[in-house]
Amino acid sequence: MTTTVFIDGAAGTTGLEILGRLQDRAEFALLTLDDARRKDPAARREALNDCDVAILCLPDDAAREAVAMIDPASGTRVIDASSAHRTAEGWTYGFPELVGREAVAGAERVSNPGCYPTGFLALVAPLVRTGLIPADWPYTVNAVSGYSGGGNALIDRFAREPDIAFRTYALDLEHKHRAEMKIHAGLEHGVIFAPSVVAAYRGMVVEVPLHLGAMDRETTADRLRDALREYYAGSRVVRVREGGDLSELLLHADQPANDGMELHVRGNAEGYHARLIAVLDNLGKGASGAAIQSLNLMSGLDETAGLRLSA
Ligand SMILES: NC(=O)C1=CN([C@@H]2O[C@H](COP(=O)(O)OP(=O)(O)OC[C@H]3O[C@@H](n4cnc5c(N)ncnc54)[C@H](OP(=O)(O)O)[C@@H]3O)[C@@H](O)[C@H]2O)C=CC1
Ligand SMILES: CC(=O)N[C@@H](CCC(=O)OP(=O)(O)O)C(=O)O
């Protein structure tokens, strides 16, 4: 059976990536609006109600507006890539590895996780659930993203100002991803989040440094890595790298698209300090790849069908 998909916001950064991943898939038929009609409310309303699955690649307000345009009787299911519904009631958080594949497969409304929260939650949520690290800990998240993470506006800015090599931001210590991180990791305190952007188009590194020695429990970096490896056993999307020798992780300016995510747990020799590190593509598992993974599950397909995964 063919699933009809409408991408609202198909001309944007995330929308184009999703389009690219769906174009050769026989299981899906694409409903598209030409440039003259892509922002026309009447045309969007019609498409939103005529499709089986609407994927929203819009700013938050436009995403809320799109959801309001859908007649519940139309049967349209939604995957929202924006941050409008990530902690909203009635929405399933589109992180199959954390909420369960069946939950996503059966959901009517799926909220795609944010790019930074994807890395953070992949590392921290399973460890908090198993009690290896505490829920009532003041976690810090340091992260670096490619500039496509800021959509067309940031892509244009990096084109206009090519001398920017590094930009740290959210200096008021507020960021819309903080709520999502706290709620879906089951934490008691909000995190300190230090995001930044480098002069690379795509890709990101999300890191949680841990003072294991202060945690009042028998946790070592090796135990954390083993627990994550067990948790993600069988996943072809999330992979936990072995300990072993590793002196650096690199983000290249022209990284290819990647819908997978690599997790690293590094510890010092004494066992007091650890660095939990997620390496992913903001436009892959951080956005479009995750949306395709959810779409596959909602369509009864293998979750990795059409994903760009390295061997
Ligand atoms: N980029 C990333 O790495 C990630 C993005 N996201 C989220 O995905 C969503 C899309 O982001 P991104 O693709 O980066 O943003 P872009 O700015 O690149 O694209 C947004 C698209 O939506 C269109 N649009 C805006 N308002 C309307 C409207 N009322 N009706 C129809 N189309 C509209 C824009 O058109 P126009 O340009 O003509 O205004 C543009 O084509 C955002 O909510 C973002 O937060 C989530 C995870 C990662
Ligand atoms: C580099 C950059 O600007 N990144 C964006 C987040 C990108 C993303 O994940 O989008 P959502 O906000 O929809 O989750 C930011 O910090 O706002």
TrEMBL record:
Pathway in which the depicted protein is active: Amino-acid biosynthesis; L-arginine biosynthesis; N(2)-acetyl-L-ornithine from L-glutamate: step 3/4
Ranges in a coiled coil: none
Alphabetized InterPro entries for the sequence: AGPR, AGPR_AS, AGPR_dimerisation_dom, AGPR_type-2, NAD(P)-bd_dom_sf, Semialdehyde_DH_NAD-bd
Record's catalysed reaction(s): N-acetyl-L-glutamate 5-semialdehyde + phosphate + NADP(+) = N-acetyl-L-glutamyl 5-phosphate + NADPH + H(+)
Positions of the Semialdehyde dehydrogenase NAD-binding domain: 4-106
Active site: 115
Protein location: Cytoplasm
A Pfam family matched in the record: Semialdhyde_dhC_1
UniProt keyword annotations, A-Z: Amino-acid biosynthesis, Arginine biosynthesis, Cytoplasm, NADP, Oxidoreductase
GO cellular component, as recorded: cytoplasm
Primary role: Catalyzes the NADPH-dependent reduction of N-acetyl-5-glutamyl phosphate to yield N-acetyl-L-glutamate 5-semialdehyde.
Entry similarity comment: Belongs to the NAGSA dehydrogenase family. Type 2 subfamily.
Name used for this protein in its record: N-acetyl-gamma-glutamyl-phosphate reductase
